[in-house]
Amino acid sequence: MIADLSLYLVTDPELCGDRGVVETVRRAVDGGVRLVQLRDKNATDAETVQQLLALSEVIDGRALLVVNDRLDAAVAARAHGARVDGVHLGQGDGSVLRARRVLGPDALIGLTANTPAHLDAVHALPVGTVDYLGVGVIRPTPTKADHPAPLGVEGFRDLAARTPLPCVAIGGVGIDDTEDLRDAGAAGLAVVSALCAVADPAATAAAFRRRWSAGSVPRILSIAGSDPSGGAGIQADLKSIAANGGYGMAVLTALTAQNTRGVRGVHVPPAEFLRAQLDAVSDDIVIDAVKIGMLADASVIRTVSAWLDDVRPPIVVLDPVMVATSGDRLLDPAAERELRDLLGRATLITPNLAELAVLSGRALADWEDAQSAAEELSRDVGAAVLVKGGHLDGDDAPDALRDARHGLRQEFPGERIPSRNTHGTGCSLSSALATRLARGDDPVAAVRAARAWLRESLRAGESLRVGGGTGPIHHFAGLWRRGGTESATEATDIAADWWERIAQTRAAIDELPFIRALADGTLEREPFAWYLAQDALYLREYARVLAEAARLAPTSQEQAFWAESSRGSIAGELDLHASWLTPAQGVSAATFAAEPAPATVAYLDHLRSVAFGGDYAEIVAAVLPCFWLYTDLGRRLHAGEFGEHAQNPEHPYASWLATYADPAFEEATRAAVVHATVAASAAPPERRTRLRRAFEASSAHELAFFAAPLESYPVG
Ligand SMILES: Nc1ncnc2c1ncn2[C@@H]1O[C@H](COP(=O)(O)OP(=O)(O)OP(=O)(O)O)[C@@H](O)[C@H]1O
Ligand SMILES: Cc1ncc(CO)c(N)n1
Ligand SMILES: [Mg+2]
Fold first, then answer.
1. Cβ < 6 Å from ligand 1: which residues?
2. In CA terms, which of 125, 240, 328, 400 is 20 to 30 Å from 294?
3. Which ligand has the shortest distance to the CA of 227?
4. C-alpha 22: how far from its chain's center?
């Protein structure tokens, strides 16, 4: 098997402190750590075995587990029933050949390598002895006192280029190294203090994951049946994965002979061949998420279950397909019980109303009742459940997400789209969800994004003119309308370029005393209130500029987006007045009646002059930094990058900080980035430069705006 090395936690009992190693590991795995190495130089073998047993239990197959150095302890822990996947050996820790012999061909064996000579030694071993290399140290680190001279990112790049083996970067790796190391060829980041020594290992691990995945395309495997007419099954899945930004793969459970009118026949290949397909993929490719669709019969379910147990992909979206839109059965009724056993292996289950009734073993009275049944099912099986309202009578087609483990109850309202093209909506939705989750969206954001995409694709379905029955949706409606796939990748490049060009401005914002004091809670009330008063003045005008973007928007989707953003920023201004800019908060009358400060005037003058020019692309380029810089800062503050204080609920500005780490704001920022860069990608080169300048100028104004409170705040 090929291991997912992307985020690798190496434990340190001292850094984990009172929380302990086991609890730290549990939370870090919750946040997305994929591989855990137990490292405790002082423990006895017997203690190491106990720790491996405890870790194996909290990890519960969600990540791989290896132990540093202690081959005998690994063997003993396995004998006691722990799932220990392998060992990591240092240059002096004993022979990797012996480890391979003892642990077998499926074990994960890592070796430390810091020099070209180490690489030569590994290359001289039989192929398959070592699975990955730990290459470092990257930076000087106190967690490895006897470390060799740091390699830095460039030294890592040189070593990684000299070996075909996957290399994990280790030693002093912090979250800001993520992109550099990934681009230098790292298969993953091995992290010690940046996860063990933080207040919230789950949030920090999630932040690492997001940054690691941001520049990469998630690899999504659909395990489903074939629909030769292309609207449902794996054909729909592959289109949906591609349209939502993933790399799609497909393992066939069954072939159907069907079209838009119905299913004429089903052929289920032998289970051994299904397993061979699954292994062919997982032996070679790291799988970021799995979507499961049509399972046909009990032997298919058992084969998929066994493979899932071996591979444990981090995200599993299970669409419990039982009956096609046309009414034809796609699952042997005798296999329904087996299907229930599979539910516990899923992250998210997406039944329609009929399927939910079968899975919960009772009739559903109405939509309310369906939602409580979804919650019961979620509690029973330990997975999130999205119940789909596509088959409700009436004018609405809502969905509802329930996760009993986290008390999550979210309804997604939406009017029914009058269309006959609903063939494969369930397949398409579940694949889109798997892709969005693998891209790092939380479940609510993933459902929002997948639904928005699905609804656009549903509306455009009829334009495809496919078949005379229930036709397919148009998976690429949004992408093609926005100027083709070329412009989509071009827009991604533009976003990366623009972001890179304001790197210095971003670094300067991070260094501002105002930001530092805001993060650690030492900022005085008066300059904070002064800042908010300026922000309120700013928001009022900014809302007008957003409204102008709405007025000029080329599509109704964009028009709605900018109008909603405009409304949101006025609501934000009113909120500021109601919650912070009040005498009760110790804000003086002078602050309350603030005049715009020079930085405020300058920023607004810039925005207004762009808005006055009446160029949609330039307006959206100019308003983008206000979304992007705040989201980025809010996320990093929340992740504890400026110290742990910002995560403390007692922080004097906790509620203000929380606004900017809000997933909905993050979603809006993602959309703003897409709209601005897609507009830019359609512009000729000189105009594109002008758009970029507008973006850069606004970013510089953001910096000045953040600097102003402690520079021009009228002291006394
Ligand atoms: N006419 C419609 N208008 C808007 N949304 C719809 C419509 N029909 C289905 N949907 C949405 O499509 C998704 C699939 O829902 P549905 O309940 O049809 O699932 P399904 O029966 O599993 O689909 P399939 O028949 O493809 O297997 C849901 O998000 C649902 O809200
Ligand atoms: C192969 C296949 N999977 C799923 C569905 C559900 O729509 C279908 N019609 N065909
Ligand atoms: Mg379905």
1. 232, 325, 352, 388-391, 397, 399, 416-417, 419, 422, 424-427, 429, 451, 454-455, 458
2. 400
3. 2
4. 25
Range with the lowest mean pLDDT among 291-295, 334-338, 361-365, 422-426?
334-338
Ramachandran angles phi, psi of 483, nearest 5°: 105, 20
Q: b or e along 397-430 (b: 16 or more beta carbons within 10 Å of the residue's beta carbon)?
A: bbbbbbbbeeeeeeebeeebeeeebbbbbbbbbb
- CA proximity to 428, closest of 478, 359, 392, 482: 478
> Does the Cβ of 259 fall within 6 Å of ligand 2?
no
pLDDT in tens, 319-373: 999 887 777 778 888 898 899 989 999 999 999 999 999 999 999 999 999 999 9
Q: β-strand 399-403 against 408-412: which pairing, if any? A: antiparallel
| Nearest bound ligand to the CA of residue 331 | 2
Q: Are 528 and 591 in contact (CB under 8 A)?
A: no
Average pLDDT of the residues in 136-149: 77
Question: From CA 361, how far away is CA 368, in angstroms rounded?
Answer: 17
Please give the annotated binding residues, written as ranges: 37-41, 68-69, 93, 112, 141-144, 172, 192-193
Convert the pLDDT of each residue in 20-61 to its tens digit.
Answer: 999 999 999 999 999 999 999 999 999 999 999 999 999 998
Q: What is the pTM of this model?
A: 0.70
Given its phi and psi angles, is residue 238 left (phi above 0), alpha (psi -120 to 50 degrees) or beta? alpha
Indicate the SS3 state at residue 459.
helix
Does residue 423 contact residue 472 with C-beta atoms inside 8 Å? Answer: yes
Q: Whose CA is nearest to atom 2 of ligand 2?
A: 233
Q: Which residue is closest in CA terms to ligand 1's atom 22?
A: 426
Is the pLDDT at 131 greater than 80? The verdict is: yes
Q: Cα–Cα distance between 301 and 321 in angstroms, integer?
A: 12
Q: Which of 425, 458, 462 gets mutated to test ligand 1 (max ligand atoms within 8 A of its CB)?
A: 425
Print burial letters for 610-645: b (CB count within 10 Å at least 16), e (below 16).
Answer: bbeeebbbbbbbbbbbbbbbbbbbbbbbbbbbbebb
